[in-house]
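Q: Can I borrow your eye for a moment on a structure tokenisation matter? Would you mind producing a protein record, from residues through to fold? Write it directly below this note and I will take it from there.
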Amino acid sequence: MEFYANSINSFKPCIIKQITGLPCPSCGVTRSVLLIVNKSYFSAFMLNPMGYIVVIGMIVLPIWFAYDILFKRESFYFFYVKFEEFIGRRKILFVILFLVAINWIWNIVKHI
């Protein structure tokens, strides 16, 4: 547990925070992932909810890639193409940018 506490507090600010003094929208994601791994789910969410997206990707993507390699499929590639088309729609893109902006404001308000 001591290593965990030290690792949480030993992160250096990102380059954006070093230059501007303000956190970027993804500031705290690494610490959020560490909190999720250590079963501090609420603290992780409060630190940066995007940590959950990263954890899901860390679990799903290697399995998906292994599946495609083992079975000589291209399911991830086809998903990626469709997903890129989906997020390219103006309304969807606006919603994503709005959520990122809200997260950024949340990080600034929390003084992350």
